[in-house]
Amino acid sequence: MFIARLALLTLSFTSVLPGPAIAQVHRKSVDMPQSARKLIEIKTSGTQRYGHDEIVAASGLRIGDSVTDDDFKKAAQRLGETGVFSDVAYGFSYSPLGTKLDLQLADAQKFVPVRFENFVWFTDEELGKELRNRVPLFRGEVPVAGTLLELLNDALQALLLEKNLPGRVDYMRMAPMDGGDIQALNFTVQDVKITIQGVKFLGPASGEETLLIEASKKLLGTDYVRDQVVGFGEKEWLPVYLQRGYLKAHFGDAVPHVTHQESTSTVVELSVPVQPGPVYQVEEVSWTGNKVLPAEKLNNMIHLPVGEAANAIRLNGDLEAAEKAYQSKGYMRARIKPEAAFDDANNTVRYTLQVDEGDLFRMGELEILGLDASATSKVRAAWTVREGEPYDAGYANHFLNEAIKVLPTGVHWAVDVRESVNVEDKTVDVNLRFNSK
Questions:
Q1: In a shared domain, residues 308 and 243
Q2: Residue 292's domain is classified under what CATH number?
Q3: Which of 53, 67, 77, 370 has the largest count of CB atoms under 10 Å?
Q4: In 30-167, which ranges are E strands?
Q5: pTM, whole model, 2 decimals?
């Protein structure tokens, strides 16, 4: 809601936006000199996010212009519609010297970062500078609704046109796959193919550059999208260091450089800065929270020799194996989290493996589909985990070899196994679907 307040000698009215203004004007207003319409001052208050000059620029008003209340209404509405303010109010006063405007604003609370996924013709600094000049209220993040998004979209499209660059600008609201609030706004250039031709690394540790280049081969020839390159680096580049004890290795943003440009296609090479950091050796490994499985048994699954480089990739695989050992005992939701304590002076690390065993789950219902009554009876008899017994998460797959033995011969059987974990009653239902081929 926009609230306006006006005072001029004996002229006054109050209006509420959006909606028609209701005014009572005294005759003396016709004697007001034209100089009183000149905008001589704008005051802003209430916002903690934006500066005075940014708000004035976004309002569309300029000192020295001849103004009316309608101009103030439009300026207030323009600011409010951006979505960056939860409330916009204004008040103004005339005098023979001119008009003074007072803008009172309240900041919106929900903002999300903006990411530019494939604007390869500009550095982040260049793009940020251009957008701040064209969209005064843009500071790297935006509200999830309002005209600021469209203003950014239009500014980016205009920038491409001015530089004679191909493509159509679009944006997408990014949220978690399982639902939830919007986390970011991703702007992309559509209708142009941007291909990765090569990758070079800046500052890799000795001996790792060859491995990084080899790992990058799967990236060559693919479309450049910033988020996808980041995901590729976490999956393919970072493990090169983590499995060698570089536990604090860091990859900076891959910077694209245009090497070839045509009307609807662009070829880029990526420069990837690397900060390997030191190699950390294992000082100690300990367990906490484990009751069902003793530390001695769990230690046999962990391959972190004291005094050797900490292989974080191997550790993750070992912890998955330890979780499966718990699941074989019926602890279906057991999770093990490694906590690393670094001694940077000596380049060593102590691991505390925190176990959350969770609840014990028992065998629920067994459903067998795709077989006749006789075969179904035989398969059910061969299943040895009875209802109410602790469930073994690995049993179903091992059981299939036994199940095939009791089925009609001369037929190739395909079996689909589905386990349904029931959190409320702590049971696991199993569905076995047989298909003959």
A1: no
A2: 3.10.20.310
A3: 67
A4: 39-45, 85-95, 98-107, 112-116, 141-142
A5: 0.78
